[in-house]
Write a structure and sequence with these properties.
This protein has 191 residues and is mainly α. It has a domain at 88-190. The chain has five helices and no strands. The chain has helices spanning 2-24, 29-119, 127-140, 143-154, 158-190. Helix 2 packs antiparallel against helix 5 (158-190). The termini are far apart.
């Protein structure tokens, strides 16, 4: 037990020596207070800077959300516009095809008009009128009409000429009727 008391006493003496030794060699109170004040100031400045950065981050996140919503809205609008464009392309193709038919109708009508100007009642064909008919028939590239026109140009007798002349306008009219039906079918199918 004496050994134990001696050990306790020795520990107490060593502890006191260490305590006084450390206290004597420590940092002066003024330096400690200055360091503590500097740390407190740095802590406050860091808190203010952190608060500012959090506010900036919040504003940036809000702006990002707004931009994301606007982007999604614009993408939706773009998708709708692309669908409308595709629909318009289909409509344009239908209309172009129908327009080609109606243009051909007008060209057959012009061929009939030129023909009647030259061979209609009370009309006398001349070189200029014949040339207009020739050019119009050639522009149509219709072998049936070209054949009838050649019969008119090459006929030898009055009967042959009358028969050939009687075919031209009805043939042109039948082509106009066919083209009108085709144009109506194209437009009807495109709807």
């Amino acid at each position: 037990m004496a050994n134990m008391n001696a050990t306790i006493a020795l520990i107490a003496i060593v502890s006191l020596a260490l305590l006084f030794g450390c206290a004597g060699s420590g940092v002066p109170q003024e330096k400690y207070d200055a360091l503590a004040a500097s740390c407190a100031k740095a802590k406050n400045e860091s808190a203010i800077a952190l608060s500012s950065q959090i506010a900036k981050t919040s504003a940036a996140n809000s702006q990002l959300s707004s931009c994301t919503e606007e982007k999604q809205s614009l993408e939706g609008l773009l998708s709708v516009n692309e669908q409308e464009i595709e629909s318009l392309k289909v409509d344009a193709a239908v209309l172009a095809s129908a327009r080609a038919k109606t243009d051909a109708i007008a060209q057959y009508g012009l061929a009939s008009q030129y023909y009647l100007d030259a061979f209609g009642p009370g009309k006398v064909p001349n070189t200029a009128r014949m040339k207009k008919i020739e050019e119009q028939v050639a522009s149509l590239n219709d072998t049936g009409l070209m054949s009838i026109w050649l019969e008119v140009k090459m006929c030898q007798s009055i009967t042959d000429c009358d028969n050939a002349k009687a075919k031209f306008v009805p043939y042109a009219d039948s082509q106009i009727a066919k083209l009108a039906v085709d144009a109506a079918a194209i437009v009807g199918a495109g709807r």
